[in-house]
Amino acid sequence: MSGKIDARLAELGITLPAPAKPVANYVPFVVSGAHVFVSGQVPIEGGVVKYAGRVGGELSAEDGQAAARMAAINLMSQVREAAGGDLDRVKRCVRLGVYVASAADFTDQPRVANGASDVMVEVFGEKGRHARTAIATNVLPLNCAVEVDGIFELA
Amino acid sequence: MSGKIDARLAELGITLPAPAKPVANYVPFVVSGAHVFVSGQVPIEGGVVKYAGRVGGELSAEDGQAAARMAAINLMSQVREAAGGDLDRVKRCVRLGVYVASAADFTDQPRVANGASDVMVEVFGEKGRHARTAIATNVLPLNCAVEVDGIFELA
Amino acid sequence: MSGKIDARLAELGITLPAPAKPVANYVPFVVSGAHVFVSGQVPIEGGVVKYAGRVGGELSAEDGQAAARMAAINLMSQVREAAGGDLDRVKRCVRLGVYVASAADFTDQPRVANGASDVMVEVFGEKGRHARTAIATNVLPLNCAVEVDGIFELA
């Protein structure tokens, strides 16, 4: 836990939570070749959904952004586990999928998704710059505001 | 057709259908490097949509689960084709994307998606444990209840 | 700019636009191993959204198809950039994700998605045949009718 990325996380005041375990027949991540495929993560902290509802409805774009950031931090926690605890092995955040539970007239999903993209670049620098697809959905699991999945390349 | 996975399918009483052919300029799967990327599959049997409508609306979560299972079985049928008929070549089910046509207040997409995840593990065992992203949509092609796509690693 | 695919584009009368730059902490594409992961592209021309609204609502399936075609052309423009300007390096269009902003009772997303699939095959021939997942969403960024992302293999 004394790597460069761990130091950067400490500098930013970000504590990665213990990675959540799915309660079903799937796993939080699969390592295949040089890539880690991470399951969709949601804005849960200590087992509690922190941002529930639709952005542009009960929730503001700022709420959505905070939700995306939290989901992305949960994603990093899974990547750390996949990398055997060493985030310095992350060669690249390749792609993020950002799914935003949205009121039907809310069209600023990119701004919401920036909550995930920004924290990725804050932590990983240039290696954190990723391809991204941000879309809306009418609702999400557990009524979460945002879900984020990702593909990472490990060294 | 005498492999271990074929035997397991027989044991489970699962008959893989003939793989459906898309009627457009795309293909059911692409093999790229060690990976097979499979197109979105729906709960169709013999050319007929078996589960139409929204989960949490016209359809129950149990219906949705059965739809996800059927779509996942159609997915396996494509993977078998991609593997030249030999499902024993499947090294890993890497990732499933599960899209659930949902009423706006239905939030148990994970339970629905388990219909796909469970059959994958029943058939492939540990190799069937995958990363998963389950989201809702307001509607799906042909009014299907569920769509499932996947990435598999072949040996 | 004198490759076979460039010639084919000229023959088809398709001019690839200058690739759009995301205005956030993500990038239009990431090259990882032999693959290019391209961010979600929308039907924007010269910075202006050309197809806004929902298919099956304000927009017809034909409008949606034209939107999908435009988004796919924008995708190609990113792939050309990723390939150092040489589209002849495209070995395969591996997968397209097509997201269609849809009225709740519109179920012909495949027809809309064909707008993207068809142009891919017109331009790349057999190498353009891809795995595809087409889903609906209740709304999309900037109120776009369609969003398309992709994974390509480069030689």
Count of domains of chain A: 1
Compute the gyration radius of chain A: what is it?
15 Å
The major beta sheet of chain A can be summarized as:
5 strands, mixed
Q: Please give the count of helices of chain A.
A: 3
Ends distance of chain A: 17 Å
Helix content of chain A: 25-40%
Task: Tell me about this structure.
Three copies of one chain form a homotrimer. With about 160 residues, chain A is an alpha+beta fold. Chain A has a single domain, classed as 2-Layer Sandwich (60s Ribosomal Protein L30, Chain: A), CATH 3.30.1330. Helix content of chain A is about 30%, strand content about 30%. The first copy, chain A, has three helices and seven strands; from the N terminus they run H-E-E-E-E-H-E-H-E-E. In chain A, strands 1-2-7-5-6 form a five-stranded mixed beta sheet. A two-stranded antiparallel ribbon of chain A has the order 3-4. The mean pLDDT of chain A is about 95. At the A-B interface, strand 1 and strand 2 of A face strand 5, helix 3 and strand 6 of B.
What is the element layout, followed by pairings?
The structure is a homotrimer of 155-residue chains.
Chain A: H1 4-12, E1 29-32, E2 35-41, E3 44-45, E4 48-49, H2 61-82, E5 90-101, H3 109-124, E6 131-137, E7 146-154
Parallel strand pairs in A: 5-6
Antiparallel strand pairs in A: 1-2, 2-7, 3-4, 5-7
Helix pairs in contact in A: 2-3
